């Protein structure tokens, strides 16, 4: 297990309707693997570096005519712009609700300035109430306006039965997170599907 405790890194993938609720600003120079995936209109999805020329993000972002990523800064207005060379959508992806919402982006140039994320061991397991760390861009309160600064908040893994109450067709490989009895969290739907140790919902990507 990497680090002192198991944790999830959640990256907000969509600016529209997504956000870090009741979180705080991410420390300067932290989470240098964070990436803003953009089109000509600006931020679309979050992602993270896994090598110096590959980014992981969500497959449902593919339809937004992605053109480039922004690296190396906590604000969306600054940073290094790198063009996207080619997207690779996971072949098992058909719709967001069915899971498998994962995509690799090959960058046009290699990146030597920023750290790739340290991937976990494959055998890592998640338990109820396990603390996760969520990071991303978006709204800081329900109904609020999006912000450009990287935000972070702690959330907890939820019992699968609670998710089934909201999503009766919940697949067996789905994990929910957000915590009980708290306003803290990310987006407003915390339904996550497990694909090769990466977890996704309508707003986030997690790396266990």
TrEMBL record:
GO cellular component term of the entry, any: extracellular region
Domain Peptidase S1: 20-188
Record GO biological process: proteolysis
Catalytic activity from the UniProt record: Preferential cleavage: Arg-|-Xaa, Lys-|-Xaa
Position of the signal peptide: 1-19
Name of the top EC class for this enzyme: hydrolase
E.C. code: 3.4.21.4
Keywords linked to the UniProt accession: Disulfide bond, Signal, Zymogen
Subcellular compartments: Secreted, Extracellular space
SMART domains assigned to the protein according to its UniProt record, in alphabetical order: Tryp_SPc
Protein name, as recorded: trypsin
Organism: Neolamprologus brichardi
């Amino acid at each position: 297990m990497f680090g002192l405790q198991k944790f999830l890194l959640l990256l907000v993938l969509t600016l529209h309707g997504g956000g870090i609720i009741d979180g705080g600003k991410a420390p300067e120079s932290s989470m240098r693997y964070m990436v803003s995936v953009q089109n000509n209109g600006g931020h679309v999805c979050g992602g993270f570096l896994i090598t110096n020329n590959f980014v992981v993000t969500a497959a449902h972002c593919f339809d937004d005519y992605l053109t480039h990523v922004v690296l190396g800064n906590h604000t969306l207005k600054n940073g290094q712009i790198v063009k996207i060379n080619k997207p690779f959508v996971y072949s098992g992806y058909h719709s967001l609700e069915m899971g498998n919402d994962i995509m690799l982006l090959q960058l046009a140039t290699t990146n030597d300035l920023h750290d790739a994320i340290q991937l976990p061991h494959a055998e890592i397991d998640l338990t109820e109430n396990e603390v996760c760390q969520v990071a991303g861009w978006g709204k800081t309160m329900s109904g609020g306006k999006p912000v450009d600064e990287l935000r972070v908040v702690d959330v907890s893994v939820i019992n699968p039965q609670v998710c089934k109450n909201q999503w009766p067709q919940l697949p067996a490989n789905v994990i929910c997170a957000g915590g009980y009895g708290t306003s803290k969290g990310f987006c407003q739907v915390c339904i996550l599907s497990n694909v090769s140790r990466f977890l996704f919902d309508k707003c986030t990507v997690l790396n266990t």
